[in-house]
Amino acid sequence: SSHCYRWACANAVKPEEPASGQILVRRSIATRRRRCIRCSLQCSAIVRRLQHSTHMSSHRIWMGDSPGQHYNADTELCETGQCSEFTPCTEKGQKVDNDIYKSYYAYCNATGEPTYIQKCPGTYQLNVTSQSCEPICQEEGVLQDVQDCTKYYKCQYIYIDDETKFLIRELLDCPANTGFDPNNYICVSLTEYPDCKTELEEKKRTGLVKDET
Q1: Rounded CA gap, 132 and 7, in Å?
Q2: What Gene Ontology cellular-component terms does the record carry (predicted)?
Q3: What are the residue ranges spanned by the domains of the chain?
Q4: C-alpha pair distances (Å), 80 with each of 62, 100, 102
Q5: pTM, 2 dp
Q6: Phi-psi region for residue 74, left (φ > 0), alpha (ψ -120 to 50) or beta?
């Protein structure tokens, strides 16, 4: 079997060579889904272990370390750019954030290394103080509320004086019979957003929200 230690591969089987310019994707027959992705045919490789909370499955990424190449965890493709890093661990069990992929965080093991990696839901990010995934404003705009598709967060600056400003977050409701579309950042009719309509109907059925129809 294969496992990861210090971001290196131990007892891993090198995948067969894909055609030039292609990315090889392999899946094991085990219950947990695994993918080995090799960025470059000419470089050596390292294996990183990812565990996505959305699927509760383990991912092994066969990743090239050629100069200027890195694996983009969001697009699942190899791209030009620098590799991301996690904030150094200070204690076992601590969650540390990533400097590039803000939705991702890692658990620190007993030796002070980031090991299992998970992703916050939606656009949420790790609040290192509370150690929880939260909607965090980085700039003015809107963010989805992953707990309720009929709500959204508005991020805006409050100015104290010409030199002092604070970015605050306000939870707002979409108009009746609409839901917040996280792809277009606007409230749309529930007929155009079937996932939200299904979610709302389920909450009404279970009594989590009041049925006003």
Answers
A1: 25
A2: extracellular region
A3: 3-80, 95-134, 141-206
A4: 16, 14, 19
A5: 0.54
A6: alpha
